[in-house]
């Protein structure tokens, strides 16, 4: 129910990165949602529960591919597996017709963090979706440390889906009929005034004298003044274009055509303009992911080859590393502007032991001090008794300023001793 509300809210108020032809063809579904009619949004959940197995493994070109869902446990998959994530249908931030962009981002982050996953394959067939959440998902893809390839899964990669797919290392179409593009932004504005009037409802909007600009853009748009709304859309469009230029840097061919006006391209045209890298098969893409992973490992080894002194420590037992070798390795790190310092295992153990002993000593002294303070408080609140016992006739004992310092109780002595610790 909560997701249903979020979906309807997004439909009514959201800004969209979506293919308009696809959106218009689904207006009857939108009408049914707005009228509160029961709508089955995903037949995989017909019983209210996704009955798919927790972990589904398939073999593609000899590699283990994990059909990843939001609940997939990567601890249950073999090391070196490929995580395959399907993004299908319109994309909203929190989902309903399918998973939301925040769900997909979480899946990608978990796959990237799992030691059992070597790379990520995104299968995309989407007309785009809500602006909100799109950048978050694209950032998760772009920031992944493992290779990511996006494929158009016999369909389209339009608008928000293009933004998302462009964050991958490479993009391939699976069919010549696949389409990509629709780099643009638009929004819809529903005016329910006449609908309310037909039902006898008169809506009054009353604003504080101190809030003249609240909802002004919306109110102006209802009057046909779209300038402020367009400024907002233009800002988002500029961000969209900037992201595509950055993500497809060195691949775009703007001399062939300008893809930033909202056009859609069939696969071969999308290749020419540089929005995708080619037309391929799922088997070839899996091979390519392995190539990218191996290249990544090779580059990492090459980067480490510059650290000759550090590399020399490889396979040497900790207790056999000489102090001179550590000094040379640390000098090498400093030359590269790296402030981290290597120390021997023995030194580390000594530092750890010394730190523990220091902590134990501090704890012991703290406990003794606390006990002493408690005892002082007890003694200060207790009636004093003279040293040597209570005088036989207390009334005859007169303390003068001259003799006061000579009258000392055993509690005075104990307090002085405790305070002197």
Architecture overview:
- The protein is of the alpha/beta class and 421 residues long.
- It has 3 domains: 2-186 and 234-287, 2-enoyl-CoA Hydratase, Chain A, domain 1; 192-232, no CATH class; 307-372, no CATH class.
- Helix content is 43%, strand content 14%.
- Helix 4 runs parallel beside helix 5, helix 5 packs parallel to helix 6 (160-166) and helix 14 runs antiparallel to helix 15.
- Mean pLDDT is 79; it is low at 40-51 and 392-404.
Quick summary:
The chain is an alpha/beta fold and 421 residues long. It is 43% helix and 14% strand.
Q: Describe the largest sheet.
A: 9 strands, mixed
Count of helical stretches: 15
CATH topology value of the largest domain: 2-enoyl-CoA Hydratase, Chain A, domain 1
Strand content: 5-15%
Shape: extended
Radius of gyration (CA) equals 36 Å
Assembly of the depicted chains: single chain
Low-confidence stretches: 40-51, 392-404
Domain Peptidase S49: 142-294
Family: Belongs to the peptidase S49 family.
Pfam family, one: Peptidase_S49
Protein name: ClpP class periplasmic serine protease
What is the secondary structure topology, with strand pairs?
Elements: H1 2-13, E1 15-18, H2 20-25, H3 27-34, E2 56-60, E3 63-67, E4 81-88, H4 101-113, E5 117-126, E6 128-130, H5 134-142, E7 148-158, H6 160-166, E8 170-173, E9 179-181, E10 186-187, H7 193-198, H8 216-222, H9 227-247, E11 264-266, H10 267-273, E12 278-279, H11 282-305, H12 308-311, H13 323-335, H14 345-380, H15 410-419
Parallel strand pairs: 3-4, 4-5, 5-7, 7-8, 7-9, 8-12
Antiparallel strand pairs: 1-6, 1-10, 2-3, 9-11
Helix pairs in contact: 4-5, 5-6, 14-15
